[in-house]
Amino acid sequence: MKTILTNKFQFFYATILLLAAFTSCIDKEDDQLDMRKPTDKQEDLAVIDGKIETFLSSNSIPGAVLAISKNGKLVYKKAYGLADVASQEKMTNSHRLRVASVSKTFTGLSIVKLVQDGKIRLEDKVFGEDGILGNEYGTKPYSDRVKKVTVQNLLHMTTGGWVVNGNRDAIDYKQEVSNKVFFDWMLDNATLTFEPGTQYWYINTNYFVAARIIEKVSGKSFYNFMKDNFLDELGIKSAVMVKNGLAGKQSNEVTYYGLGGTKGYEYNFNIERRDGDAGIVISAEDLLKFALAIDGKPSRPDILNGGSYSQFIKGSIPNPQFGIGILSWGDVRSFYGALPGTRSSYMIHNNGMAISLIFNGNADYTGNNYNNFATAHENLLIDILTKNLNIYQDIDQF
Asked: Is the whole model's pTM more than 0.85, yes or no?
């Protein structure tokens, strides 16, 4: 179980480089932003539907929900396949789905909102006498490395670790205990292998800690902070926090289907612990609405001001492309998520196009070929955002 749930993002940095190459090869003939004449009703677009349906069938994924915007307008939304295989329930645009690590963008935005409001600084220490969390967690004296960790280190994945038992992410251990007990155990037992700020290392535990900072500083639960500070303002009503097990499925939430080594683990772990790094359940339409509120463009209001947005998308010296829960390079801002039975994404392009695409199935990320699947997913998003741009109607379905 620990091996399956340990972060499997070895492909992560490689796919960033691949995406940079792809975005430099956009077909100029397709880069047209003139819309068709207005109409009140969305018409099916065979060229888009064919791409999604082919991807689903090629990868044995039951269903997907898609939302596409153009210059801030929701010009296309569609559901494909099944929300639940056993009952043959069809996927709809209103279905909620886990977004896994895309939740990190919500956590990152929450932290930067606290910075913008003057509540904390990215340079603030997290632990120790001068830290935001002080000595509240753990039972042993903190190491020098732990006391050096800043808020920025957490969000940029440059803490240097929080690993146990052969460099495995601590988040996957002690599944049966409360967050407080886990946090105590993690600080007592997990290792920071590198000096904070010197190495990029994608460790989910970093965003677990970030969520605790949000709660400490705001005096609210992580979810209520998001709700009060941007979800309600944006009109995002579908976003909820994930619950454990099949019995914990939220209303109108899909069923998830893993493959290979992940099959059977879709509901067999403590996902409620993963609030800060993988805890959001949301519709594709609302995920796109959220993405457009962090795009730095004037077509729709943004949550952050210009200076805060620059901080949000800025990476670190070890990894300039990994911002505060958002990837930024070339013409693209994006993030991806993966759990057993879950694959999610949003992507924002500088040409005015944006997309959210969420699946209730996922390839086997414990195997050797997951990078091929991840790259195909990435290529699909790029293809939709950079080709056939004149096919969309002049409508706004938000």
From this structure: yes
